[in-house]
Amino acid sequence: MARKSGDRPFEAVGFLISQLGFQSSRRFADRLEPLDLNPRTFALLRHIEAAEGEPQHALAEALRVPPSRMVALLDELEERGLVERRPHPTDRRARSLYLTSAGRRLLEKAKKVAAEHEAELCADLSAAERKQLIALLGRIATGQGLAAGVHPAIGFKVVGPPGD
Amino acid sequence: MARKSGDRPFEAVGFLISQLGFQSSRRFADRLEPLDLNPRTFALLRHIEAAEGEPQHALAEALRVPPSRMVALLDELEERGLVERRPHPTDRRARSLYLTSAGRRLLEKAKKVAAEHEAELCADLSAAERKQLIALLGRIATGQGLAAGVHPAIGFKVVGPPGD
DNA sequence: TATTGTTATACTCTATAACTATA
DNA sequence: TATAGTTATAGAGTATAACAATA
Known about the structure:
The structure is a homodimer. By secondary structure, the first copy, chain A, is mainly α. In chain A, 55% of the residues lie in helices and 6% in strands. Chain A has helices spanning 13-32, 39-50, 56-63, 67-79, 101-121, 127-143, and strands at residues 83-87, 95-99. The radius of gyration of chain A is 18 Å and the shape is globular. The interface between A and B is large, with 65 and 66 residues.
């Protein structure tokens, strides 16, 4: 997308998406802070809710997080009483993951925050425009081979998955 | 955007943008690797090209990078013979930044890579759709108070500014 | 012999703040 | 006294690989 004169840069889809993605994640992280959550822990709670009883390695695999990292992540959530590691019914090596009721309550609050975040992001868009934007982005995501719901940065510090 | 039944998550603008932004940056980084560049160094070269002769602190300020970080960043580019630090004409504390001819040549190559990246990203979109997508994203970016061309993650490791 | 979860180690990147030389 | 650039230090977060228990 080279421009001939003036060379006005940075109007490409790639740059805009990256710029916005980072900004959106950061903003979402700020919003979650009062709940002592961040985009990553939020995503974790969501995935556990969606597949309760699964062992750690299944979660790690689904989210593409190294198992050794999952340990520390879950340690924190368990210490805070949001997640429970129970013995697996058939495999004594494994530990089944469950949300506690406190975890469930906090997750519901976080979902509200996510909805607010989404609303803010799309404040200047009509419902039809938002729908169209989602469709366009979804086509790019498919083209890029992205699995729906799996944020490729979930293993990283700053950029996490803004949700809902 | 809570859904009542099934609770199918992750179809929000926020999540898609963040997911795609990260993926796009990573993909762009892969593409730049053969040139021994990454999104951040690419952005640096671009900005220097756009404002040659400026001192370091101006660049640091424009890109929101701490001055101490700028040092290491520029050290690398200078050692590779891509950027030159010349004495400032009026302020002997400052150093004016210039692209070397090698830097200019490499930047041109990188711009081609960026154009390829953009083309890949938008492969499934018509020209009109791409234009519309850019317009929609641009409106969100404005609403979020993002300065055009300044990637908020330029100071970070993994996520850099995919360009053009 | 392979796998689940855990721990330990080393490495990379970062911000903070002290420092110098000019202004 | 303030500013441009630099350097040093300490801290956070990460992957890698070794480890114990179980399959």
